[in-house]
Amino acid sequence: MTDYFEVHARDGAARIGELRLSSPLTTPALGDDVVEDAGSLWSEARTTPEGDEEALTVLPHRAFPAGTREEVQESFAVDYPDVDFPSAAVVTAETAADYGADAYVLADAVGVVGHASAFVDAVRAVRDATPADTALYLAGVATPANVATLAYCGVDLVDGKLARIKGRQGRYLASDGEYFLEDLDELPCACPACQSGRETFTRGDCATHNVNALAAELSRVRRRIRDGRLRDYVEGQARHEAWCTAAFRTLDQQYGFVEERTPVIRDAELLSATEDTLRRVEIQRFADRVTSRYRNRFDRPLVLVPCSARKPYSESQSHAQFHDAINFRAHLVSMTSPIGVVPQELELTYPAQHYDSVVTGRWSEDEVSFVATVLERYLERNDYPKIVAHVPDEGYRAVCERVEASLGLDFEYTVVDHPTTDDSLANLRDALDGEMSYRKRTREHSTVRAIADYMFGDGAGDEVFESGTFQTTARYPKLQVRDTEGEQWATMVPQYGMLAFTLAGARRWVESDAPTKSVEIDGFVPHGSVLAPGVVDASADIRVGDEVVVTGPKAFGVGRAEMSGPEMCGSSRGIAVEVRHVEET
Length: 585
Ligand SMILES: [Zn+2]
Prior knowledge:
Structural class: alpha/beta
Radius of gyration: 27 Å
Strand order of the largest sheet: 25-29-28-27-24-26
Number of helices: 18
Largest sheet: 6 strands, mixed
Bound molecules: zinc ion
């Protein structure tokens, strides 16, 4: 049970937290002013400290150098007392466990920071073994250049110790690295310590500047986490230290750990400026769901087209021209780096309309092979009577040819020079000659079913929205799903391309054979939100932003998850679900 730390926002493994001291501290932050160390038990036996709500007290501890054998660590293990003031326990990757503390101090931070895999392993080990609503503190390691990466990987508290030491050694720190003071002709900063100017700038000033620079970087990191955009920043910023780049790439290889902590919807735009973007969770998750959950429901030819800079694609000029030529006679799927393939029904679904990429007119080998892999998986799962590739060169054609060869398919190519030339559009029109247009109803029904597949799992669209049981009303993209009597089940939310359910819709979902994401609560009727302590159990696959059903002895409701399922079950503070509709049962 933690009383003194609460997570308010999540952006992958990074969080905005609140250390609830008598004057609260928003994390990630410097802990220097609020952390009291009760000392090491190696030097002397110590009694349990008094402690109070003004500080986070590090309980008496025994630290071990990196590589200490587990048996040795166990035989000297500390019995952490149960205290009623804000406390932190010192742990290693091996000894980390739930000791009832509000924060955990990684004992050998100095030994792992600078080594990507050792660092990621240690942070993961502590995170996995301690409750989500506790802070992770790494002392003596933070610099303005590495702190964004530390936070990205899940560190909540750091200190200014290393920055001060380096300042006194004449090392001037910035978010792009470290300079020797004697090499600086001018000071590349405008903080108060740097105001005096280069001539009179002392090593003492340098220490002060270093801590200022660290604090400024932390405030930028907090802003980025709140905006859901820390990853975009880290992909660029981490380039200044090789180990930081290696650290976030190492974390990318631990998909499950990051995926559990990454929201399924966000307002923020995702910027694809480096090839590392291809490996971020949002991109991998979309590609995975499109190729394992989504199913094509149109019995028409497939037309593959290039994406457009404007999102959603259907609002771009090029797609309006494709649309005119196709005239509902084919299923439209856009090819894009970094998303892969986007079926027309999912063009609004996060992150399909939320990304921007650097367009040079030439795809790298990594991009070609990523998009080809996704297209190949997509076509293994979805059969079409005919495939028309209305794509330009510049990577698209290479992807198509690669997939044609590997699957033994024959695509018909319709582009001359550019996809929107008159000749190209005439070829596209001709390629679909004799095909019948599908109906608006087919289009709308397929869209809500495709979104249900994407949200809930393979086959979910047909299970929840069984033929003959529902109708769609209102205009795309604000489609509404109703039963045949007219009672509303769900609304399509255009910002994220997801469905928001009514109580009747939630009942329909629960009664169907589609996988349900449910949060079981105690015997109360929630109004507005369900707090974590009220949660009895929750589906493990719930992610932040997911549509969830809330059930309990006294209530049935539907809403949006604010925590992952595991975090709801393991937390004693914070909002678990924002409830949209609820009724007493
Ligand atoms: Zn400065």
